[in-house]
Batch of 4 targets.
Target 1
Amino acid sequence: MMTMAQEKAYQHYPLLRNLHYSPLKHGDDQYVVLWDPTGLSPDKLIVPLNLFYLFQYFDGKHSLEQLGAEYLKKYGEFLMPDRLVKLVAELDEKLFLEGERYEKAKQQAVADYRAMSVRPAAFAGRSYESTPERLCDQLEGFFASQEGPGLEPSARRGQSIRGIVAPNYELKEAGPIYAWAYKELKEAQAPEVFVILGTCQTSLDRGIALTDKDFETPLGRVPICKPVIDYMRLHGGERFFEEDIRHRSDYSIEFQLPMLQHVVGTQKPFTIVPILCSFPPAMLVDIEYRPLFDHIDQFLALFKRAIRETNQNMCVIASANLAHIGIRYGDRTPPTDFSFHRCMQTDLEMLKKVEELDAEGFAEFLVHEGDKRHVTGFPAIFLLLKLIQAQKGEVLRYDRQIVDQFNSTITYASMVFY
């Protein structure tokens, strides 16, 4: 519980939470839309570009008076104090600021989530169809579509597939690219356990977030692999469950489940180990990240032991997008055809490291690049490479999605490991 002094400090020195934002143009006017990627707040806020400029100073170190001074310095005009107070109050009301209101809402959300017996489908009806019949038709259409893998048998039919990488984007949009990876599972010797590594949409203090909840989709309930989850808890892995609330509203794992149910669940029962992850490639080289590196290393050691001791035959799925380029992701200018093709060439060069199962080389590639292209799927792909026992990997399909009116672009690929 916050002290009165702490709460007053937050009111006078506002501290913005880690929000997502996107540029918006209406006629000649430019705005920015803000939202909470954790889903704790369901609200969005649209602010003019001039007010959004001030948000870089909502860092808990600048007072309201200093915010007004920064505005005057930038635009040469006074920002009326009551307008600034109203903006701070609106941000606080929407749970966009650190403070007592946010802390209470977070504690309640954690309690509510842990009381659930199942993690309900959060994106059915928005990102994919919400009824079983329509969803099955939609999924089958991904395979048969012009961008999909078609109906010809895979060259690896009947083989044991150790892992796949699939997009981490809206299923209704990127479904045909998902289908390239899931076709491999459809025709493979399917295991009983699928470890799903989701790219968490927000940062994780500890880099890893396990959950013990079964997942629900319109196609039914997907049970967790209880022996592995119980082993992790019984052998010192409780700390890896501390941020389980992030599963409540994160789509990364959910988007994989209808595909998995469609291609495997119709043939045999299976269980999952749902793991969200979020950590930078610099973790491997920067001394500042040493505690996080050690934590991830301990997780990998314990998880491998859990799989081995519980005698599980597993396949690992990495839910991961690649580059994020454009104004929406912090670039100064929109992508051009030339810049996209250059990005594609760099993506494919980077994925050579992944095909070669070179986890450290993959990390070093991104460290050397300096996060210029905002490759968000690194942690999921890195953990996949550290967990699987495969001979090689292969890029099956590469594509992109334009996500706003400024041509901001996300790239993704489907891969298979065998």
Target 2
Amino acid sequence: MRELSRRQLGKLSAGLAVVGAASLVGGGQVAGQNSGLSRPPKLPRMLAKAEIPQSRYPRVVIVGGGWSGLTIARQLKRLGVPLDVLLVEKREVFFSHLQANLWLGGLVELDHLTHSFLDAAKLAGYVYFNAALVDIDRTSRRAYTDQGYIDYDYLVLAPGIDYDYGSFGVKDAGAEQFLRAHYPAGFKSGSEHLSLKRKLDEFKGGIFVLTAPPGIYRCAASPYERASIIAARFKRDGIKGKVVLIDPRDQPAVNGDGFLAAFENLYRDHLEYMPSVVIKGVDPIKKTVSTDFDDIQFTDAAIYPRVRAAKMIEAFGLADKASQQKEGAIDPFNYNVIGDERVYITGDCRPMPFSKSASVAVSEGAHVARVIAANAEGKAAKWATPESRCYSVVGLKPEQALLSLSYYRFDKATKQWEFAPNSSSDNTRSEKLARDNHKWGAGAFKELFG
């Protein structure tokens, strides 16, 4: 094993400290401090070469096995350009946020949401490497994981989101951890969804608070769909409870007319929508949400704060300092880090104001795959708008849904992103749209996992 320079060793130590403090794409715990030693302890596993197949072609390393990372890996192998593709992901099982609300409502089984990364890799012909990213060295094009280092020709960072509890005025680490454990948002890990499902199964009555975060979040329609489904459960099961949905916007972020009609016509006694309300603080011990108008006492809750890009983006010096959500500083059309056409940031960590939905991640992922494949051949790929396709279930019996379909364009005169003219919404509750939703979801899973 080659000797590391003092600068590289110090850089790696900083990366290890980040793993201990942040929610990265990494797996188990690693030591980030050295108990007073003059230099970090030897870390042979991390500083040795990872045990992966030898590369025959330029290697693309993709960090993060969400919808974006999986799609990029799949599409790169489909395009036929000779590239070795390796997916680095800490989890051993994929848990989908797409259609997770349907599971909360009893409309799909758990195995609909859970899939094998091994199956995905086998289907497409890339390598799945179960490991945690610790650090990157862009000069030597090397990615360090808890299972060894990997040399790359192209690196894609798609590690997902972290929560910004400070946006709710929660700055004490103990209070934040209590919130995470007792009132999880249910928009990040599979464990959060399992916890939320159990909460609902055991809920006997009272006020169940949900929050819709400010900014661009995962995903635009989901808090309103979730509120509808939980209210439908209370109504169906005779639970003397009410969902209180707190939203900083003056109406739902998408399908406003459709959601408001469902809230009023279907769940008047089981759902209270509170628009234009800004949360100032949360006391998880007293079970109180403080707003700019009043304090709201709750029986149980799922607290969804503002999201930010995964903390590794900032820790690696790749965040746009102007981004309130700490998203990557990238070329908005090619997704590469500014000044580095070998490193790309995608999915929830990109800064453009598109929905952070699975459908957008899939269409963006296909574009990024084309960009990388073209770059490998000395060519360029033309930008194409992502598609945001959001079905939102608002009724359980009968199952009915809404649809929001969005496309985007960049106005060169104003230098602003805006919706393309072919965007549309269907705000009429429809059983057909509910059936379309199931077909679309099944197709999305089959595409990646077989």
Target 3
Amino acid sequence: MNKEFIEAIDQLEKEKGISKDTLFEAIESALISAYKKNYGANGNVAVEIDREEGDINVYMRMDVVDEVEDASTQISVEEAKEIDPAYDTGDVVEYQVKPEDFGRIAAQTAKQVVVQRIREAERGMIFDDYIEKTGEVVTGTVQRKSNETIFVNMGKTEGILPVKEQVPGEHFNVNDRIKVYIMDVRNSTKGPQVFLSRSHPGLVKRLFELEVPEIEDGIVEIKSIAREAGSRTKMAVYTEDENVDPVGACVGSRGSRVQSIVDELFNEKIDIINWSEDPHELISNVLSPAKVESVSLDEVNQIATVIVPDYQLSLAIGKSGQNVRLAAKLCGWKIDIKSHTQMEEAEADEEYEDDIEEGYDEDEPMTDEEAEEVVNELDSEEAEAESDEEEEDEEAEDADEVLEESTEDEAEEETADEVEEAEETEEETADEDEESETTDEEEKGEEE
């Protein structure tokens, strides 16, 4: 019987993964509860199980007192000395008892205690195991769906993938294999609850660590990552090794490494950029693929003003502002993007405002009359400028008229000359005709 008992303990250890000591302690507690249930004992009962042979011994512990007040927990000095003359007041007498067969209720109590202790031990092991895996990626199988919540079988326990941690556009069926990010582990009355995520930026980070050996070895470091799940991710990488290209290491040969991650994320776009400690360079990099002309920083308010070419403005902002939004998350700066034309107009407006404020003294603010004079002066200057422009326009018009008149006179003179030449030509032609006729008449007279 004892041999079968030890074999049963060994089998439980293999199946449940619970140590023998934990199982023996659970059975000892169960026997104590059963003894008290069966015999109504309120005293200190101890049970010891031989780990090798499986022998079970039950001991009763009682306090040695001069006057007994509770017979179930106390024993008089005289009775104690009968057991051993060395006992004295204040000692604890421990003697073995041999209980008779437990009744049905006591046996049921022992069974419940054992089962409960084993279940608690299992939960404790699962909690300890998965609390250490928080922030890691594990592979599981979709076990069931409840409304839109997905429950994933991860072997020892069942993980919960809430709706808000799922990615729009991703659909999984029962028995589909799925990679998930362990976001949180909590202990509850129902056991450990493992909360999973498919939208957390950490999922992308861990996938790259699994796919890129340089990241796993610490040669390449992921400095920052920003993600809008299902659409686009931006990731900044850095290395101190001059012989290693951090972006190339993450992309892989012909994009093989990053492509496997893109496939896992159902074609989510991934931008990989170089990290820089220089905010100007970093902000220029994070706005990729847009080209940046200049970056000015307001370090007090952590605001960066970025100037881009006019044709690059929409690309820098991105669809619905996605590119600049992810860039701001990635670098930690608020980014204000302006086109080249917008910046020139803003500078022109600032110059105008500076002109208005010219002569303003902070200690002695201008009166309304002084402000009106400044505005009038500016208006007069503008009026003079407009007048000069009008004069220039009038001079230009006059010059055009003179030019037109001179052109017309020349044209008329050329026309008159052409008419005279034509008349002279006609006269010469007429004379030639007359001479020709006279010659013909003379020739006819001679012939006659």
Target 4
Amino acid sequence: MKRITLSEQELPRTWYNIAPDLPEPLKPPLNPATGEPIGPEQLAAIFPMPLLEQEMSQEREIAIPEEILDVYAMWRPTPLIRAERLEKHLGTPAKIFYKHEGVSPPGSHKPNTAVAQAYYNKISGIKRLATETGAGQWGSALAFGCCLFGLDLKVYMVRVSYEQKPYRRSLIQTWGGEIVPSPSPDTPAGRQVLKDVPDSPGSLGIAISEAVQDAVHRDDTNYSLGSVLNHVLLHQTVIGLETQRQFKEFGLEPDVVIGCVGGGSNFAGLALPYVREKIGGKQLRMIAVEPEACPTITRGHYHYDFGDMAQTTPLLAMHTLGHSFVPPGIHACGLRYHGMAQLVSHLVRLGLVEPRACQQLECFEAAVTFARTEGIVPAPETSHAIQAVFAEAERCKREGKEETIVFNFSGHGFFDMSAYDDYFAKKLSDYALPEGDLEKAWDEIRDLPKP
């Protein structure tokens, strides 16, 4: 068999919450003014209570409402595919599989949580959402979700991505979203950045500040985040739950689980159900792959930090490069975030997840090889996972091991072809973050509370 596609009736009916299975509990979010743990009531101004309850939940399984399942069934369950042509090209004894999340209407894993967040805001009486987006995958997914549930949407898109990826902008507008480049003149945070750095390329930290300020200043608006928070990662676990069932039909179990990481949602969606098995004693490896240009978990500090540049969010215990960090404009814009999901950071700290960083050119090289063997053009973000797959396949070849590798094909690259144009024209370059930039980031956060 080359692929396993489950039936609609086999869709998971619950999301998996790893919180009660962790060997050590997560550090709580802190109020930056008092240093005390923050409760759901303090976040209710920008999030609906059902999502806040999920954020803090200790229930292992959380039921997926029928209204959400009905939308999921437009594209889920997604296929688990064996990459036989890629295996042959690499000459590896490893078996390589990918979970194809690019089959969703917006083309990525992001609608798994976008649909859920739109639904919970809708039933909570909210009329409008505000959000940020890096490469546009999240913005287009939330536009899709808001369109289905009748919500208005304002998207603050990181400026360098806004200019690089015009068709993501078009997709957001097609589903009814309003979109502006960030930093923008529409919010206090955006205006301040434009005053200080008129040609700022933007960052996810800046765009988050703008979206949060938008939500705070309007009674009809909530904020929506596409990664990092516990409830976002929770919604993504449909990926891993389906994958576990599909591997049973193949009669196999993975030895290595791989995903790219920016905020952490697509990696966690595939990996968390397997982390539960590893905690239970199963021998397997989980690899989280990020860009060398934004090395949050490989070179950042595990510390309390703000989730945004303007310091409007609670303090989160996470790996971070510092909330004012503005990464270089690599094409994997969805991986250009200064922080990392608390859950992913915690799992790295506990030694349950291996962090790894890759350079831009080797990722594009891997992406082109994947496209020429498996036929699908990966998003630049997804290419980081593919590059790590290549490395693991080479290790298996060198060691003569027939391991099973699975990675999350988190999104296609059909709206990222300008990045491939630049790659073929040799306009792209590698970039390793200078040590001085890391020290500057550490100086910014060293006086914040320690986890």
